[in-house]
Amino acid sequence: IGLQILGDAYDEETILRVAYAYEQATDWHLRRPQL
Protein backbone atom coordinates (compact mmCIF):
# COMPACT_ATOMS: atom_id res chain seq x y z
CA ILE A 1 0.00 0.00 0.00
CA GLY A 2 1.35 3.39 -0.88
CA LEU A 3 0.43 6.96 -1.57
CA GLN A 4 1.76 9.15 -4.31
CA ILE A 5 1.15 12.89 -4.32
CA LEU A 6 1.60 14.65 -7.64
CA GLY A 7 1.67 18.34 -8.39
CA ASP A 8 2.72 20.88 -10.93
CA ALA A 9 6.36 21.27 -11.85
CA TYR A 10 8.33 23.39 -9.37
CA ASP A 11 5.38 23.49 -6.94
CA GLU A 12 6.98 21.50 -4.14
CA GLU A 13 5.43 23.80 -1.53
CA THR A 14 1.91 22.61 -2.37
CA ILE A 15 2.98 18.96 -2.42
CA LEU A 16 4.65 19.28 0.97
CA ARG A 17 1.61 21.06 2.41
CA VAL A 18 -0.68 18.26 1.21
CA ALA A 19 1.67 15.60 2.60
CA TYR A 20 1.91 17.39 5.95
CA ALA A 21 -1.88 17.76 6.17
CA TYR A 22 -2.30 14.05 5.44
CA GLU A 23 0.28 13.16 8.08
CA GLN A 24 -1.47 15.32 10.68
CA ALA A 25 -4.92 13.89 9.83
CA THR A 26 -3.89 10.22 10.03
CA ASP A 27 -1.72 7.93 12.12
CA TRP A 28 -0.10 6.04 9.25
CA HIS A 29 3.33 7.54 9.97
CA LEU A 30 3.17 6.05 13.49
CA ARG A 31 2.22 2.50 12.53
CA ARG A 32 4.85 -0.23 12.68
CA PRO A 33 4.47 -3.88 11.71
CA GLN A 34 4.42 -6.46 14.47
CA LEU A 35 7.54 -8.60 14.39
Automatic annotation (TrEMBL):
The protein's matches in InterPro entries, at most eight in alphabetical order, are given as: AS_sf
This chain's protein is named Amidase domain-containing protein
